[in-house]
Amino acid sequence: MVRSQGWYGGEGRDPFIHRAWMRRGVPDHAFDGRPQIAIANTASDLTPCNMHFNEVADYVKQGVWEAGGVPVNLPVVSLGETVVKPTAMLWRNMAAMAIEEMLRANPIDAVVLLGGCDKTIPALLMGAASVDLPAVVLPGGPMLNGYFRGERMGCGTGVWQLSEEVRAGTLPAAEFEASDKKMIRSKGHCNTMGTASTMGLLAEALGMTIPGVAGTPAADSRLLEAAHASGRLAVELATEDRRISQVITKESFHNAIVALAAIGGSTNAVVHLLAIAGRLGIDLSLEDFDRIGGKVPLLVNLQPAGRYLMEDLFRAGGFFAVLDQLVDLLDPLAQTVTGKPLTEYLGGHDVWDRDVISLRSDPLQDDAGIAVLRGNLAPRGAIIKPAAASPELLVHTGRAVVFDSIEDVHARLDDPELDVDADSVLVLRGCGPKGYPGMPEVANMPLPQKLLKQGVRDVVRICDGRMSGTAYGTVVLHVAPEAAAGGPLALVQDGDLISLDVPNRRLELLVEEAELANRRTAQRALDGFARADRGWQKLYIDHVQGADTGADLDFLVGSSGSVVTRESH
Ligand code: FES
Q1: CA dist., res. 317 & res. 323, Å (int)
Q2: If you measure from the C-alpha of residue 239 to the centroid of ligand 1, how many angstroms do you get, rounded to a whole number?
Q3: pLDDT tens figures, 106-153
Q4: For residues 442 and 444, what is the distance between their CA atoms, to the nearest angstrom?
Q5: Is the confidence at residue 11, as pLDDT, over 60?
Q6: What are 483-539's pLDDT values in tens digits?
Q7: Which of 58, 82, 125, 273 to pair with 199, CA 20 to 30 A apart?
Q8: Which numbered atom of ligand 1 lies nearest the CA of 118?
Q9: What domains lie within the chain, and their CATH numbers?
């Protein structure tokens, strides 16, 4: 018997109430024991990357009906990355909590998770994992290529590049202003290898999508075909009771980490994968990213580190053409929602454009994974994406220029008196999960104008916050523990020497331990760290964990299952 029969099945007052209020044009046989399939739909006019989802959901519904199920649209909390303040990451756990509770509270047997914009797929997966119902992810797809001045221009990445040009005085502000419609010209999420693209592809690497659909552009009719197929599959999942915990295992994360390195994916994926693993009780550590991904070659030439965009990746053969070349690195035990291993779908996927997808024999870069750094400045770890960094800065020692908040950056960065040069190390703290709160994407802080005018385009930056997946630069991020949680980043002073050594995975503050002990004693809370007296922000600050374990709330880690025992009628 399917779970929803706990609402609709049998005789008497309570099942009557459940059926009667749901009828409204729905045929009688809808409640005869057939699976009820929710479409957890993150469509919202305030999430522009997901605005097309109601059309996609209609195709999911057709697939569900066709396969003998009953579709129900379930609007869930949606987060528009560019719109939501103070930062969408503050709300990821809230969205996940709401999704979890609504899936559990309602007569649902399986769910199609419809996500796109950065935080939406992570929140959907986290929430659904904690309920552990059968589920399939349908990524909403990237937008079409943007073009500016005759060249490909990725959204996000283009904003960072052009705004720096304006600050350097090499691009008129009016031209920057006019770039928006050229950069963002269709439905869909960001078209670079940013967080949304990365998480869509990694949902597939985790085995949670119909194999082969991730990366389909939002405007491509094949996305609607995939929606139909996802609806059909959800009915099968419910019938066979194939739950998320049977699909996503430690082996699935192994494959996701391999894929993350090969596609040059967003650093945000580290936090999200750790949080999803936490919901499933899977022991995934920061070191796993370095150990598994460290030796994987970079095969995908996409912005922000490379040249092309998601539409090009799809044209060049798609995600499976990338995975096809990495079969020997993938775990053959990892399953997919179809009940077959991921590797069973690989083989015979051609690369049609080797400038977009490199062959394994001629990679864009060897050893492309995310590097995990340790040292007295990051005892619980920090990460850097070498593929997006300047090679000459990967081993570097320089004097610290310290900022206590992003507001401090805005106030002082362009001050001609700022004591900074091309060798300086910019430190930005107070931007971790607790400190901001919400761990904003500010780690790739802009360069001081006086350096830009000297032609400097990158310096080492260190932060306890995150970096947009569309950004680039020699940026050390997710430093843990964060400054607001008492991490050593809080002890750094202007002029201190900091040593970054990526090949040896070290990040050191070159200050005597005795001096650091003095500073620790004298330390007062840094101004600007967030405080909250009530509401979600208080709950978040009081309970959020470090970036090194996924920045989930301590009481949300794990699963409560799908059983609801009490009934109020
Ligand atoms: Fe939505 Fe980039 S703003 S994916």
Answers
A1: 11
A2: 35
A3: 999 999 999 999 999 999 999 999 999 999 999 999 999 999 989 999
A4: 5
A5: yes
A6: 999 999 999 999 999 999 999 999 999 999 999 999 987 765 544 566 788 999 999
A7: 58
A8: 4
A9: 145-185 (no CATH), 372-530 (3.50.30.80)
Q: Are 318 and 230 in contact (CB under 8 A)?
A: no
If one residue of 49, 186, 187, 268 were mutated to test the ligand 1 pocket, choosing by the most ligand atoms within 8 A of its CB, it would be 49
- Residue of 78, 82, 121 to mutate, ligand 1, most atoms within 8 A of C-beta: 82
Q: Residue 399 forms beta bridges with which residues? A: 497
Residue 304 pLDDT exceeds 90: no
Crossing angle for the helix pair 89-105 and 535-543, to the nearest 10 degrees:
100
Residue range 49-66, pLDDT digits in tens: 999 999 999 999 999 999
Ligand 1 first shell, C-beta below 6 A: 49, 81-82, 117-118, 156, 189-190, 194, 196
203 pLDDT exceeds 70? yes
Give the distance (Å) from ligand 1 centre to CA of residue 408: 26
Query: Average pLDDT, stretch 380-408?
Result: 94
In SS3 terms, 333-389 reads as: CCECCCCCEHHHHCCCCCCCCCCCECCCCCCCECCCCCEEEEECCEEEEEEECHHHC
Q: To test ligand 1's pocket by mutation, which of 186, 189, 199, 302 has the most ligand atoms within 8 angstroms of CB?
A: 189
